[in-house]
Write a structure and sequence with these properties.
Layout lengths: L5 E3 L1 E3 L2 E3 L3 E7 L4 E8 L2 H18 L4 H17 L1 H12 L3 H28 L2 E2 L7 E9 L2 E5 L5 H15 L2 E5 L6 H11 L8 E4 L3 H10 L3 E7 L2 H12 L4 E5 L5 E4 L5 H13 L11 E5 H17 L18 H16 L3 E4 L16 E4 L6 H4 L6 E7 L2 H9 L3 E2 L1 E5 L3 H10 L4 E4 L14 E2 L2 E2 L4 H6 L2 E9 L1
Parallel strand pairs: 1-5, 8-9, 8-11, 9-10, 11-12, 13-14, 13-19, 14-17, 16-17, 19-20
Antiparallel strand pairs: 2-3, 2-10, 4-5, 6-7, 7-23, 12-22, 15-16, 18-21
Helix pairs in contact: 1-7, 2-4, 2-5, 3-4, 3-6, 4-5, 7-8, 9-10
Bound molecules: nicotinamide-adenine-dinucleotide.
The site of nicotinamide-adenine-dinucleotide has 32 residues, from helix 7 and helix 8.
Length: 482
């Protein structure tokens, strides 16, 4: 599949155009230039917000059923372009094709789910409110909050977009989307699908570009009612500060430093699989990566032996190889950042069990071996900070309470995993963990019905489920004297 040498990076008011900024889009597995996207600047953001503001007058008045029908068309369009979208995800992000397929299926499920919620809105609109008096009546309306700005990262490009875009459209909001400048290709294809879905002009607008050229003016625009942002904490803070100037709502999905707890009675093979999935899926570039693995003393030696053997057997290769298990990191900057974490970990006295280097058979591309450390000092950056690469730190614990304390000892609180044969202990631990989502004896499965988001500095708000829709709605009560 070949790409044009340049692509228009703006979709505003139903029209494609080229912006003034040239974004070089790289294939991280080969380091070759894939294409150049002509992205936008503050002027393009202004046009996109103007178009969205004009479109809001009509779109906010459509019925939920009308919006649901369009969301279903988008879901069908994504399903129909599954192969193309998988190809774009793998070539632009470096993830294996089987992982790209999971992403596309997630996008379809998300649009379908919010289509269903949109269709259910009409019957619930103007629902009566029970009052403690007969002198007044009251009704509840949920209205779209307005024009919203969606800013997303590169690790799950289309998925993070769908988790915002589908509920925003379902609620009746108009949208300006800014994809990551590193991985704009999946969203450009998604925009082309949306353009064919029958959505009225101006309801959905896309402005590719860098954070400073596009993300910053979008966060500051006074006509934007809400910014929904997924990305790093450093940028999330800046977005929130800009949004504060005009008291915009913000939803933030930020970093994580999550733990897997392997209790003393755990099935070791299952624990190893969960550890590898939580640490090495998407080359560890997951906000939900369980980069801390806490193992009961009794199992620690045997678990580490098996984890090391499994990690060393993981096939790191080009994402299009048939038996690939782990692909490349997303770009040079991320590659260097992760190698820097590994170096600092070694300097801090951490013990490297395996990995830490480029695989010998892959001289080009941003490939890294699955990496495991033990003896990681608790105050070190490797233990405390998000690594966002295929790096796991293993530590043993003597008691359940120690494991919970270690897991909760973080500025983040996104997710956690527990592996144990004891259902009671699993629930006790899950209830004690400060995390928005806990998996018990399970891989990191995600459903559109369950919330995504975390405690502490991982998030503000929740995505998915009805909470994801409510994030784009205002609540209005109308009280009438009888
Ligand atoms: P990033 O913060 O560098 O960039 C995210 C987005 O913000 C990009 O589109 C970028 O262009 C834009 N941006 C950059 N500077 C900006 C500015 N000044 N104003 C407005 N927008 C700006 O993050 P990244 O490197 O793309 O992604 C990795 C980070 O995302 C990790 O920290 C990861 O934990 C986080 N993440 C969180 C979740 C979650 O659900 N909690 C999901 C995926 C990724």
């Amino acid at each position: 599949m070949s790409l044009p040498t340049t692509l228009h990076g703006l979709f505003i008011n139903g029209q494609w155009s080229a912006g003034p900024e040239h974004l070089r889009v790289i294939n991280p597995s080969t380091e070759a230039l894939l294409t150049t996207v002509n992205g936008g600047d503050a002027g393009a953001v202004d046009q996109a917000v103007t178009a969205a503001t004009a479109a809001f007058k009509h779109w906010s008045q459509t019925t939920g059923a009308e919006r649901g029908a369009i969301l279903r068309k988008i879901a069908a369009g994504v399903q129909g372009a599954r192969e193309q979208l998988m190809y774009l995800q793998s070539s632009n992000n470096g993830k294996p094709l089987f992982e790209a397929a999971i992403d596309v299926d997630d996008v379809v499920a998300t649009f379908e789910y919010y289509a269903g919620l949109a269709e259910g809105l009409d019957a619930k609109q103007d629902s009566p409110v029970e009052l403690p008096t007969d002198d007044f009546s009251a009704r509840l309306r949920r209205e779209p909050c307005g024009v919203v700005g969606l800013i997303v990262p590169w690790n799950f490009p289309m998925v993070t977009t769908a988790w915002k875009l589908a509920p925003a459209l379902a609620a009746g909001c108009c949208v300006v989307l800014k994809p990551s400048e590193v991985t704009p290709l999946p969203e450009l294809e998604l925009a082309a699908i949306i353009a064919r879905s029958g959505l009225p002009q101006g309801v959905f607008n896309l402005v590719c570009g860098t954070g400073l050229a596009v993300g910053a003016p979008l966060s500051a625009d006074p006509r934007i009612a809400k910014i929904s942002f997924t990305g790093s904490n450093a940028v999330g803070v800046q977005v929130m500060q800009r949004a504060a100037e005009t008291v915009k709502g913000v939803s933030l999905e930020l970093g994580g430093k999550s733990s897997l707890l392997v209790l003393a009675d755990a099935d070791l093979e299952l624990a190893v699989e969960v550890a590898c999935g939580g640490g090495f899926f998407n080359a560890g570039q997951m906000c939900s990566a369980t980069s801390r693995v806490l193992v009961a003393d009794e199992l620690a030696d045997e678990f580490l032996l098996r984890l090391k053997a499994r990690a060393e057997a993981i096939r790191v290769a080009d994402p299009f190889e048939p038996d690939v298990e782990m692909g490349a990191l997303v770009n040079q900057a991320q590659y260097q950042r992760v190698l820097g974490h590994i170096d600092r970990g070694l300097s801090a006295g951490a013990k490297l069990i395996c990995g830490g280097n480029r695989p010998a058979d892959l001289p080009r591309g941003y490939f890294l071996q699955p990496t495991i450390f033990t003896d990681v000092p608790q105050g070190s950056a490797l233990w405390c900070e998000e690594i966002f690469g295929p790096v796991i730190c293993v530590r043993s614990f003597a008691s359940e309470s120690e494991a919970i304390a270690l897991a909760n000892d973080s500025q983040f609180g996104l997710v956690a995993s527990v592996v144990t044969r004891n259902a009671e202990a699993a629930d006790r631990v899950a209830n004690a963990l400060q995390a928005g989502l806990v998996w018990i004896n399970a891989p990191q499965v995600i459903f559109a019905q369950t919330a995504w988001g975390g405690y502490k500095q991982s998030s503000i708000g929740r995505e998915l489920g009805p909470w994801g829709l409510q994030a784009f709605q205002e609540i209005k009560h109308v009280i009438r004297a009888i």
